[in-house]
Design a protein that fits this description.
Largest sheet: none
Shape: rod-shaped
Order of helices and strands: H
């Protein structure tokens, strides 16, 4: 008695080598893609390390810059104080010089005069 229904489909034997070659090609392609993915992962890790190094360098540079700005502000404050002190000393020296010049032009009258004159 014959079974009713479609007969199982069989592929012609001529397609088998082509399918095997295609499978080999796909496996090789998959290996290449996995290798490329692994290489990309290594490169990404290296780039992440470089980026972190750059971020650390920028942070260190920012700290140095902040320290230099603070020192500059302190120096500007000191310069202002020294400039004020210098102006005050110059004014005092100017008054002293004026007084000395006036004395040299008109000497003060003698307080004690000898009797024989």
């Amino acid at each position: 008695m014959a079974l009713a229904g479609p007969a199982p489909a069989r592929q012609p034997s001529g397609d088998l080598p082509a399918l095997q070659a295609q499978r080999r090609d796909e496996l090789a392609r998959a290996r290449r893609l996995r290798a490329d993915a692994a290489a990309a992962a290594v490169e990404i890790a290296a780039l992440d390390r470089r980026l972190q190094t750059m971020v650390d360098d920028v942070a260190a540079g920012d700290q140095v810059l902040a320290d230099q700005r603070a020192r500059l502000a302190a120096l500007n404050s000191r310069e202002g104080a020294l400039t004020r002190d210098l102006a005050r000393e110059q004014a005092a020296s100017g008054r002293l010089l004026s007084a000395l010049q006036m004395l040299s032009r008109r000497p003060p009258p003698p307080l004690l005069v000898p009797a024989d004159k």
